[in-house]
Amino acid sequence: MAYLDYNATSPVRAEAKLAARRALDIGGNASSVHALGRAARTIVEQARAHVAALAGARPENVVFTSGGTEANALALWGAVQGAAEAGARITRLFVSAVEHESVLANAAALTERMAGLRRETVPVTGEGVVELDFLRTALSQGKGRALVAIMAANNETGVVQPVAEAAELARSAGALLLVDAVQAAGKMAVPQADYVTLSAHKIGGPQGTGALVHRSDAPFAPAVLGGGQEHGRRAGTENLAGIAGFGAAAEAAPREPMPALRDRFETRLRHVAPDAIVFGERAARLANTSNFALPGVPAETALMALDLDGVMMSSGAACSSGKVKPSHVLAAMGVTPEIARSALRASFGWASAEADVDEAIASLAKLLARIRARVAA
Known about the structure:
Blueprint: E1 2-3, H1 14-26, H2 35-55, E2 62-65, H3 68-85, E3 90-96, H4 101-113, E4 118-122, H5 132-141, E5 145-149, H6 163-172, E6 176-180, E7 195-199, E8 210-214, H7 240-252, H8 262-272, E9 277-278, E10 289-293, H9 299-308, E11 311-312, H10 328-332, H11 337-340, E12 343-347, H12 354-376
Parallel strand pairs: 1-11, 3-4, 3-5, 5-6, 6-7
Antiparallel strand pairs: 2-8, 7-8, 9-10, 10-12
Helix pairs in contact: 1-7, 2-7, 3-4, 5-6, 8-12
């Protein structure tokens, strides 16, 4: 079997499995003061230090969550509510057109429920890169404090966004910046921002664990109240095994260079499908991601054929309960619905090998040969 769907989730690293098992064996609650509780607390704080190192942040600024989606929601709601409580309300929310659904949905909900908060979409180029000139003008023309959400690298296309430049624009305008670094972590340096979000299972940790990293001086109000865990920033008993695995994966990720298989895949794809379209290919992209279309071949058809051959890819984001639906990312890039319906994503990771590329290409070649034979007949 060839697994080419790391952007959906990565297989769990051996180090993360071992750390999670050890945490389960301890079994204490990190909020308890007895010996097992103290042992659990040590695991949580060691993991926090490893995640902080991956993000280039201070451990005390790491808040563990149930995943990247909760981290994005916590950042958006926490920033808006925290700013209001501090007397410096956020009145403008700028969100790039290619953000993850967890950012888009929470941004929409915020503007519906928070009086005086206006949301604006930052467009992207045909290659999927945020239009900085638009952001610069928008930040300079409006009144009131702003919060800008721009992801580090897109989960569907792998296109890397100009976060450093966006951060400078935000800083000059007195705005706050949220960076979704879920897909970027472990594949490139994690950008610095007021709020940064991460997810364990994208870097070889267990599913169901993530983190929000926020600057000490960034406004923040907790959205989940209760027992005061995570220093009062996110209540609820810590997921000890998940956090332990996250920490181990975060420690391992920077030591293992990502296999450079994307170019091999795309070169061989061109041989079997000369009319293939690779999205964002003229932009800076993550070295592990190839988002492409085989014109005239519906994504569902291709995915079923690949699956029968033991090759696992996706049609884009894997956060829609297994549904194949049109990509808002490709639509924002100006891709026609007909081409978007043929879009597939191959993504590689820490355990990928050249054989995975070769099996995937062989399966696609077989599928295209069958289609051509039917057309010829």
